[in-house]
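During the no-cost extension, the postdoctoral fellow (Dr. R.K.) reprocessed legacy sequence entries with the updated structure-token encoder. One reprocessed record is reproduced below for audit purposes.
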Amino acid sequence: MTTVTKKDLIDRIADRTGNKRVVVKRIIQHFLDDIVEELGKGNRLEFRDFGVFESRVRAARVAQNPKTLERVEVPEKRTVKFKVGRIMKMKLGMDSQPTKSSRSASQMS
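Re-encoded structure tokens follow.
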């Protein structure tokens, strides 16, 4: 597995579109800034077939330090949840799970 950076994506998009790297970089940075801003406001971002970003609040809880076994209060905190969209599921092979009806048919034989 390799790591693809923002710079790599900018270079690919600039090559494919024929736009200058500086212009593509500015557009991608504005796009990412807007995503962070909207999530910061508590808004939901939906990109059809790609996925959905949602800001969630994780409830406060009591945890335990594994070394000392001391109980520790963990305050609530905001996190981001990403739900994979249809096309990404297909590309990642996540849709290959058998459905309920196909499982029952194979179990009958």
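Residues 1-42 form one domain. The longest strand covers residues 51-58. The remaining legacy entries will be reprocessed before the final report is submitted.
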